[in-house]
Amino acid sequence: MASEETSKLELSLKCPPICASNLQLIENSTYVILGCPHCKIYTRMTKRHIYRNYIEYEGDRIHLKWAELIKELYVRISGKAHQESNES
Ligand SMILES: [Zn+2]
Fold this sequence. Notes:
This protein is α+β, with helices and mostly antiparallel strands. The protein has one domain. Helix content is 33%, strand content 39%. The protein is built from two helices and six strands. Strand 3 (31-36) and strand 4 form a beta hairpin. The structure holds zinc ion. Zinc ion is lined by residues 15, 18-19, 21, 36, 38-39.
């Protein structure tokens, strides 16, 4: 069995508002994950969701709306960071 492909990319987006580390974008066969390796907060989105919401077909051309995708992940992780700081 082949091991699962995972790729990681360090972004220049900062962890909101907790530690200001660079966030990581992690991708495997099922999910795209945005997270802070320092605070251990992550938000993930299934690729199915991405295909449904962030891909536009124009004839035989496919556009992936990357900027909107990253923005939604960032909004989600901001919400998570906010929740966790309220809980503690
Ligand atoms: Zn952090």
